[in-house]
Design goal:
Blueprint lengths: L6 H10 L12 H26 L8 H16 L4 H13 L3 H18 L40 E4 L3 E2 L6 H16 L5 E2 L2 H4 L9 H8 L3 E10 L2 E10 L5 E10 L3 H29 L8 H12 L4 H17 L4 H16 L6 H18 L5 H15 L2 H14 L4 H13 L3 H14 L6 H14 L3 H14 L6 H11 L3 H14 L5 H7 L1 H5 L2 H12 L5
Parallel strand pairs: 1-3, 1-4, 2-4
Antiparallel strand pairs: 4-5, 5-6
Protein name: Bacterial transcriptional activator domain-containing protein
InterPro entries: AfsR-DnrI-RedD_regulator, BTAD, TPR-like_helical_dom_sf, TPR_rpt
Keywords: TPR repeat
Length: 552
């Protein structure tokens, strides 16, 4: 019904949602954990539905309007912080001409956020009907929180400062809108703490050293920028700076046509949010590396493990497992550490590093279960790690999709999650969707440490379409740049042989045997579920045989 898209179908779908999946049903803890990602995905679809239906602005009193209102009220009743449901009700009230009711709803949402999460909403009443005020004014200056403000100091903190308007005063609304959208998108990323927009706007029109900003807000990083608009073009410069050293960690310039201001705001915000996350992560990893090993906390141990996880080497993976176990020993309730540990054990199986695949499979499942039990539903990195582990260990794309969808709901610009979505599409034999998802990941984070993984995904999608010569070429490029990614040799063997290049294929077989003398088709078939889910695997086996790889 949702896919049809017309208001009538959306209204019918809205009435079908009567609460969370299996809500109120008592079940064993293990089964409840298994259902958790599906329950989250089901609820998320309801939130997407109420948002989509409210944006059709159904006529007052119609079936569609009343269905939207009922769904929104059910969602708010079960979760008072459900932003999409509050937004939907505000739109309905404004559409009825009941501005006071809309304001009361907004205040109800604000109070719920303060009560449940201790934060302020980033939405404003005037934006709920898609409009901006004719003469917008900046929000009132709010006293900046002291550095001693209580928050999770294990996570990096960032403030998005008001951008400098290099054009005329008539463009202030656009400049403020860009900053507001960037702040809103970054605030959805649970990996770091973002200072509220209202506090940051206290510095509008003031030139202040970022080191002073860091001290006053107690933040480690600041996003700054300038906007210049001329005729039908807009140029925006954005940079991320370390407030302690004033070092520029990342910067980018955007030159765009100003044909649709709101779309431009969304595009710039998405690109900035997508780039800031990996830049912050890299900075935090480097900071953790500089600390003495015996002084590292659980969070810092996890940071130190990350480069070893994506090193694509057996030794790096073993070191990551040791670091993650140490982090869990310090903080047994650290869900992200458990999720990443599950991913590492799954990599041992998938990349033929395991001496006991069945034991590693049990360790993978135990770690995934622990992460779910501890609750990682607000952590995109942990959710993406769980998805990767499920794909690599269980070859279960539906369960993996539930984790990835939740991650993208929290952080729509998470390159790792888009990469995960690409591999899920490969499992489902949807090469076009897979390529789009991998390319989205590369666009968001072109220098990502998992870039090789995204590009190998594109090679798989190409092979699914039957172009083995191009798939071999793409795989060779990955190996030329990342020779440590030896698992890509399996693909190079098959793609090259199927394309008729037996010289390259047999050379790759030699490299595989040098890395593992026991490598064979049957070993791959029994230990690497990702490779035998797709119809492509049977075709690849023919390539392996042509290249001289033995069955046993």
């Amino acid at each position: 019904m949702i896919q049809r898209g017309e208001p009538g179908s959306l209204a019918s779908a809205a009435d079908l949602y009567q609460g969370d999946l299996l809500d109120g049903l008592t079940m064993p803890e293990q089964l409840d954990q298994w259902f958790a990602p599906y329950r989250s995905a089901y609820r998320r679809k309801a939130l997407e539905l109420v948002d989509r239906l409210s944006r059709t602005y159904p006529a007052v009193g119609t079936t569609e309007e009343l269905a939207c209102e009922r769904l929104a009220e059910r969602l708010v009743a079960s979760d008072p912080t459900a932003e999409e449901a509050h937004r939907a009700l505000i739109r309905l009230y404004l559409n009825r001409g009941k501005a006071n009711a809309a304001l009361r709803q907004f205040r109800s949402f604000r109070d719920a956020l303060q009560r449940e999460l201790g934060v302020e909403p980033l939405i404003a009443e005037h934006r709920e009907n898609g409009e901006r005020p004719a003469n917008p004014t900046p929000p009132p200056a709010v006293e900046a929180p002291p550095a001693a403000v209580q928050r999770d100091t294990d996570h990096p903190s960032v403030v998005v400062l008001p951008f400098e308007n290099l054009s005329g005063p008539g463009d202030e609304y656009f400049v403020d809108g860009v900053v507001e959208e960037i702040t809103a998108m970054l605030s959805r990323v649970r990996s770091f703490f973002v200072i509220a927009r209202q506090s940051a706007f206290a510095y509008k029109g003031r030139r202040v050293d970022v080191r002073e900003i860091g001290k006053e807000f107690g933040v480690s990083y600041a996003v700054e920028g300038t906007v210049r608009r001329a005729a039908d073009r807009v140029r925006i410069f954005v940079q991320l700076a370390d407030t302690g050293t004033r070092t520029q960690l990342w910067s980018e310039r955007f030159d765009r046509a100003a044909s649709d201001i709101f779309e431009l705001e969304d595009e710039i915000a998405a690109r900035v949010a997508g780039a800031v996350r990996p830049a912050l992560l890299h900075a935090e990893i480097e900071a953790a590396r500089r600390k003495p090993p015996d002084s590292l906390r659980a969070y810092e141990l996890v940071l130190t493990a990350l480069p070893k996880i994506w090193s694509a080497t057996a030794e790096g993976n073993r070191q990551a497992i040791a670091l993650l176990r140490e982090a869990i020993a310090i903080d047994p309730d650290f869900g992200r550490a458990h999720a990443l540990l599950g991913w590492c054990h799954a990599q041992d199986i998938d990349w033929l590093w395991s001496s006991d695949p069945e034991a590693d499979r049990e360790l993978t499942l135990a770690a995934i279960s622990a992460a779910s039990r501890l609750g990682v539903s607000n952590d995109p990195m942990a959710l993406t790690a769980q998805a990767a582990a499920v794909l690599q260990c269980l070859a279960d794309p539906d369960r993996a999709a539930a984790y990835v969808e939740e991650a993208l709901w929290l952080d729509p610009n998470n390159a790792w999650a888009w990469g995960g979505a690409g591999w899920i599409a490969v499992h489902r034999d949807r090469p076009e969707t897979a390529r789009e998802n991998f390319e989205r990941a590369l666009t968001l984070s072109p220098l990502d440490p998992l870039e090789y993984n995204f590009r190998m995904g594109i090679a798989w999608a190409t092979a699914l379409e039957g172009d083995y010569a191009l798939a071999a070429k793409l795989t060779q490029r990955v190996l030329d740049k990342n020779p440590r990614v030896t698992w890509a040799l399996f693909e190079l063997v098959a793609y090259s042989a199927l394309a008729g290049d037996l010289v390259t294929a047999r050379d790759a077989v030699g490299k595989l045997r040098a890395a593992d003398p026991n490598v064979s088709i049957s070993v791959m078939r029994s230990t690497i579920p990702r490779r035998h889910v797709s119809r492509l695997f049977d075709v690849l086996v023919e390539g392996y045989k042509l290249a001289g790889l033995l069955e046993e």
